[in-house]
Every structure is written in structure tokens, then in C-alpha cells.
What does this fold into?
Amino acid sequence: MAPSFVNFVIFKKQICFFLFMLSQVSSGHEDDMHTVQYTKDTFLDEIKEKNNFVMFYAPWCGHCQRLGPTWAQLAEMYNEGDSNIKIAKVDCTVESTLCSEHDVTGYPTLKFFKVGESKGIKFRGTRDLPSLTSFINEQLGSIPTVEDEVPSPPEPVNGLSELTEESFNAHVEKGHHFVKFYAPWCGHCQKLAPTWEELANSLRNDDSVSISKVDCTLYRSVCEQFEIKGYPTLLWIEDGKKVDKYTGQRTHEDLKAYVSAMLEKSAEQSTNKDEISDSTLHTVLSLTGDSFEHSVEKGVSFVKFFAPWCGHCKHLAPTWEELGKKFFANENVHIAKVDCTLNTSKQLCYEQEVDGFPTLYLYRNGRKVSEYNGSRNLDDLYGFVMNHLRSHDEL
It folds into this structure.
């Protein structure tokens, strides 16, 4: 073999080795501070002790490198404190046997391991932060815990909440509620049903009141608690207590007028006591994928995309409410929030390119015009909105 060809082969191998080593460095794994790295020796012990979400990867893999920063952020969220889950990774170029055992045939492969189970559940969704966190919440939600014994308030469908014996008291214990007690076989109830759904849908963006229903044939104890004698019975409930029974006409217009009158009456009573509660004076709109487009289509909207478990979001929450109060009387400004962990908001957060929490976007007439990255104190947030209002007025 000619010497020049041999030298070329050696040179080519050296270049390949150099590029491989460079990829090891540039793959970034800045997340070593937070992400746990597993080996074959530690893997089984770890998944016996806690829930795990594991990324099986190769350092040279481009998709793995792109996922790296998001995975690091996920690890920072969950691997601190008393979390019941670990965010981890396995380098398949080093732990090839371990990766083969878990049927890893491409990179990255993401699997969720419930505590004590050796077989993982493969993640097949979009690799963005809202999708990953939503997947984690779904998996954790299917694991029995002490917290599961306390039911969460029901998630409304087009503004209408269906209550049960387990969820009723927690749902109505605070705020204003208009509740329909009914029986499926009741003719008057069947006639009212589409109007009740229309009422709920028309008020779904108003967090000062919830529209709900209870099937008395299924949840008799709730109906006995409120002494329901006939169907349908429509009660106005405030902070868990019956305030009024609706006996008027059952058209959409009449029902909506009744809601407005009861809210106004409640606000007047609170004003007389010199204290307006958050449930009476609602200053921040809670939006979902269904209501977002309509809510931001006019004027200036400043929207906080958040997750309930996010520490920075919790810290910002009271300031965001204060910001809402500052613009409460301004019809051209809407201060709003979107919970990206809800199924009704997951796609919206993905479409709006939310890749961290909280993310603050400003919209004008339905179009995103700016992201806020400044200090999160009240004065700076207020000034940011005012600057956009002034700049628009000067056009």
C-alpha cells in the first residue's frame, strides 16, 4: 500500500476522532448541575426509590443536543427540594447494554419509570417544556398518593363544571357559583340543558362566577345538603353558602341578567364593608386555548404563561394581580394569564413558543408584538405596558 494513502487513512481517522471529541464537549451538557447521570450500576437502585424521567442519548446526536437546554430546565424544576420525581439521563455510547435492555433504538429516547417498576413508558410527544411537564403530570396523576385523596376542582368544559360528591364542596367553598341541580329523566331539565350550556359558555372568560351542575340521581347527598325538592333547582351560592334560589324565566338573557345582578349586589355589599375581595373584583383574565384568540383580539393584552408548580410563577402571582388592578378601569388593556399545564392550554402554549415559565408576552389587536424580559416588579411591568400604549397613541 502506498505510503501517501496510508497517511491519508491515518489523518482521516484522526479527524473523525477529533470531531467525536468535539461533539462530546459541544453537546453541552451544562445541565450536570441538576440532571442526574445514571449508569448500569445505579439505574435499578434509583428507579426503585423514586419516579424517574430518563433521557437515553448519544453525545453526538443533534436532536439530543437541541433537547439539552430544555432537559436541563426540566431538571432544575424537578430535581430540587422534595420532588417525587428525578430527571435523569443515560449516555448510550457508554452504557450500551443498559440502553439495549430498554429497547433504545434511536436518540433521544425518553422514558418515564414509575417508582418500583422496571419497564418505562415512552414519551412520544413534542419535545418542548409544556409538553414534557404535561406528560410528567399525567404520569404522576396516575400514581396513588396521599394528595390524590383530596380531589381537585373540576375542569370546566366550555365553562360548565360537572360536580360530584367528591368535588362539590371544594369547588363552591370560595367565590360565586350558579348551580343547576337536576335529574336526567326530568323534562324541564332536558329543555333547560342547552340554555344552561349556552350560559356557561358565554361566561367562561369571567372568573368572578362559575356555572355548574349536579346530577341528583348520582350525587344524592349533595342535593339533600341543599334540600332540593324539585328539578331543576337553580341556586346562587357564595363561599359555600346558599344565598338565593332563582325562580325567574329560563331564557339565556334572563339567566345572564340574574348573574350580573347578583354579582353587582355582592360587589356593593363588599364595598360597604370597605373590602372588595379578589372573587368580586377580578382583575386578571384566566385564558385557555378556547378563549385566548377572542380575548386578545382587541386592544393591548399582557399575558403571563405559567405553571402552578413553578416557583418564579408563584413569586410573580401577587404582583400580576396588582398589575391587573392598575388597568382594571382601562377597557383597552387586558392583564391575563394562561396555565400551560391544562389540557385546554397545552397546544396554545406550544403555538405561542412558550419554552419556560413564566413567559410574558404583549399582544396588540391579536398580534404578538413583544416579550417582556425585564425586572418583575410592579413599577417596571406597569411602565412596560404604558410605553406600548404611548407608542401606539403616537402612531
In short: The chain has a mean pLDDT of 82. The longest strand covers residues 51-57. Residues 73 and 300 are 30 Å apart (CA to CA).
